Amino acid sequence: MKRLSFAKLACIGVLFCGAAEITSHAQTLTTILSFDGSNGSDPVTLVQGLNGNFYGTTSTGGIGCQSQYGAGCGTVFEITPKGLNTIYKFCSQANCADGVQPNQLFLSPTGHFYGTTFAGGSYSGFCGALEPGCGTVFEIAPGGKFTTLYTFLCQSKCADGTNPQAPPVLGINGNLYGTTLLGGANSSACPHGCGTIFEITPTGTLTTLHKFCTTQSCSDGSQPRGLTLAANGDFYGASINNKETYGGTFFRISADGNYKNLYQFCEHTNCLDGAFPSSVVQGTDGNFYGTTLMGGSGNGGSGAGTFFRITPRGELTTLYNFCSQTNCTDGWDPSPVILGTDGNFYGTTGQGGAYQNPSCSPSNGCGTIFKITPTGKLTTLYSFCAETNCPDGARPGALVQGTDGKLYGGTSSGGGSSNCFEGCGTLFRLSVGLKPFIESVPNFSKVGMVIGILGNGLTGTTSVTFNGTPAKFTVVSSTEIRTTVPKGASTGFVEVTTPKKMLKSNVVFRVIE
């Protein structure tokens, strides 16, 4: 496949018919694409590929099957300077053996993507979801070659888990780690099981590391969200419920399955510490930052979600309460946040904002994009749905920062098509003044291993260094470099010198012993 410059990708908003730039709160949002159902609907968070293009999934839409949620079972797509390229449509195989309702993708060091589907697969029964099948783990190449790595079969009381909701993440041993929303150990609290944490090899051998709610009190929680690989090599995550306080948990698990519950949400009266946490991200200070969908002191005390900091030992500080402003102009129902290259966090709210548009009824606003500092100072960067029918989209999902420094994301509704109820969703770009950077794939490795470097304008690169130690490298394209972690390298930032500038990695690269 032709490798494309990210500089060209920046022109997508102009190349797409109907693309528009809308300004709010001194920020310029470009609507890249409006979905129409036939090419997908309800897009999920984007990820940038080694060729500089963005890839993503739509959880519904596409042509392939009639889903409980509408026509189509979801797609995998690529955004190029020429427009949208659908590279895979789910339920293309008999009885939807390839799965339906795909979740977010994860970029592997090979340039392929890993992902999960919430339902579908070769098991034809129901596993707690409205769709038949218990979900799958899959691999897909940028050109569309699709491989099912594992199908959750709901055998032996669904001990292997069912209905994954997040992509697997890469561990330092080269295996993938993920969660399932249901399955595992059946209990009175969870008739379909309370969820699992699993390890899966790149060839598809799955091992269940933890089954939630194995005790009568369910103190370890249930229904886990996605995992985050921390600097110490362990995984941290959150569950959205527990039997004791019903607010969710924050936990740590090692690659060999050593599990420890670190915090139970909703321990305070009226859940002032938040309830139903999302996935977390590790900040530059080593602490974890995240959001809760509910709880906190906002919305007149009834709670509309929080932004929090929690230490690796489980000491939590609530930094912001959403819907603290009049009419919830700061938003509510926040997504997981990402760490920007400026050290601040960026995220979205699915509801609230400055515009009370009837297209988002009965919610109080159609969502926002925000920046929040590590100390909790929030700035609303954009409010969606300033116009009737929300041509800029409504109810945004989680963001990703491209190597050009800009923020990218999608909305689950709104847009220019009337083929879906309340619109089929959009893709957008928001410039907030952050500088270009490079991203190492992965951001950890042993000395002597070959890794990828993703960026733009990499043609003519003269040097690559790991915390100051020079490395051998090959420029594959203007967006990709292959390099070997050099002898003597230590943990620190990767730097690339191009003819025009020096580019620095967005996070510290960890050298593994």
Short description:
The chain has 2 helices and 47 strands. A hairpin with a 4-residue loop joins strand 45 and strand 46 (502-504).
What is the element layout, followed by pairings?
Layout: H1 6-9, H2 12-15, E1 20-24, E2 27-34, E3 41-43, E4 47-48, E5 54-60, E6 66-67, E7 70-71, E8 75-80, E9 83-89, E10 100-102, E11 106-107, E12 113-119, E13 136-140, E14 146-151, E15 169-170, E16 176-180, E17 196-200, E18 206-211, E19 222-224, E20 228-229, E21 235-241, E22 249-253, E23 259-264, E24 275-277, E25 281-282, E26 288-294, E27 306-310, E28 316-321, E29 332-334, E30 338-339, E31 345-351, E32 368-372, E33 378-383, E34 394-396, E35 400-401, E36 407-413, E37 426-431, E38 439-441, E39 444-446, E40 450-454, E41 463-466, E42 469-470, E43 473-477, E44 480-484, E45 494-497, E46 502-504, E47 510-512
Parallel strand pairs: 39-47
Antiparallel strand pairs: 1-2, 2-37, 3-5, 4-5, 5-8, 6-7, 8-9, 10-12, 11-12, 12-13, 13-14, 15-16, 16-17, 17-18, 19-21, 20-21, 21-22, 22-23, 24-26, 25-26, 26-27, 27-28, 29-31, 30-31, 31-32, 32-33, 34-36, 35-36, 36-37, 38-40, 40-44, 41-42, 41-45, 43-44, 45-46
